[in-house]
Amino acid sequence: MDKDLEILLNHLREKRGFDFSGYRPAMIDRRIMRRFSATGCKDRTSYLQYLQRHPDELDLLVDVLTINVTRFFRNTLAFDYMADRILPVIALEKKTRSDPSLRVWSAACATGEEAYSIAILIRELQRKEKFHLAINIFATDIDEKVLKRARRALYPYESIKNVKYRLLKRYFEPKRKRFQLIPKMREMVDFSAFDMMSQKGYAPPESVFGHFDIIFCKNLLIYFSFAHQGRIFDKLYRALTKGGYLVLGRAEVPTSEYRNRFRKVNECCPIYQKV
Ligand SMILES: C[S@@+](CC[C@H](N)C(=O)[O-])C[C@H]1O[C@@H](n2cnc3c(N)ncnc32)[C@H](O)[C@@H]1O
């Protein structure tokens, strides 16, 4: 990594506590360049000087670096598979073992759509099967701003366009051309800040002990170099219960070190089971 970029990332870490040093340098560069035209800077050196003179620019830089794009039931196939083949199996196993709770973690949840999507699927299954389990869904992100929006759960059409009409009617309320999740659903998810690069703990402190049945970590690994992906996999592996499921983004796979510790559940979607 070149010197200017390193100084810039150190500055960001000192001032905001965000550590982007594991991100792919080419990705960071592309993103930072977007701020050049907005600030009238022509290269990284002048942008660094600008940053030091304008502390507010740091927030805008964090915004372009943390890419928050998401939507309900993103990668519908994986969610359909979860609803048809995984959740019913987990529910049955829990019943047989008298295990009273189902634990889910959406790591890098952005504005919360992923966590609420799984909450909806669990509710739907509960309606059908009438099973009684304590449902604990934790959702985390490095970016406090998106977490605030996640807790509000008020979404534009673009976010909900994969939601089936009957689910939209059942779980959302229209509100000024947008759609808000009903309070009963909002209460199902516990949102908190957690940095997947941090060395402090392998699971969100709010979850106390990890031990998750399902973890979603979608579209986060793609931004990191392989070496840093390993650090994330270490967390995911430790936080999952044996036999638990890990859902990745479409372009993501376990690093070589973890390839044999997970079994891909089918050919069509990136869902892995801890062996
Ligand atoms: C593209 S979104 C993924 C949202 C959702 N998982 C999905 O696939 O639709 C990536 C999210 O990762 C978060 N993020 C980036 N670096 C992170 C880190 N080190 N720890 C936790 N979250 C991070 C960003 O703030 C952003 O909200």
What topology does this entry show?
Layout: H1 3-16, H2 25-39, H3 44-53, H4 57-65, H5 76-97, E1 101-107, H6 113-129, E2 134-141, H7 144-152, E3 154-155, H8 157-160, H9 165-171, E4 172-175, E5 178-181, H10 183-186, E6 189-193, E7 212-217, H11 226-239, E8 240-248, E9 262-264, E10 271-274
Parallel strand pairs: 1-2, 1-7, 2-6, 7-8
Antiparallel strand pairs: 3-5, 4-5, 8-10, 9-10
Helix pairs in contact: 2-4, 5-6
S-adenosylmethionine (SAM) binds at residues 66-70, 74, 108-110, 114, 141-143, 146, 195-197, 218-220, 249.
Could you describe the 3D structure shown?
With 275 residues, the protein is of the alpha/beta class. It has two domains: 63 residues, Chemotaxis Receptor Methyltransferase Cher, domain 1 (Orthogonal Bundle); 199 residues, Vaccinia Virus protein VP39 (Rossmann fold, 3-Layer(aba) Sandwich). The chain contains eleven helices and ten strands. It has a seven-stranded mixed β-sheet. Helix 2 crosses helix 4. The radius of gyration is 20 Å and the shape is globular. The structure holds S-adenosylmethionine.
The helix tally amounts to 11
Would you report the number of β strands?
10
Profile the largest sheet: 7 strands, mixed
Which consecutive residue ranges, at least 5 long each, have pLDDT under 50?
Answer: none
In one word, what is the shape? globular
CATH class of the largest domain: Alpha Beta
Strand content: 15-25%
Structural class: alpha/beta
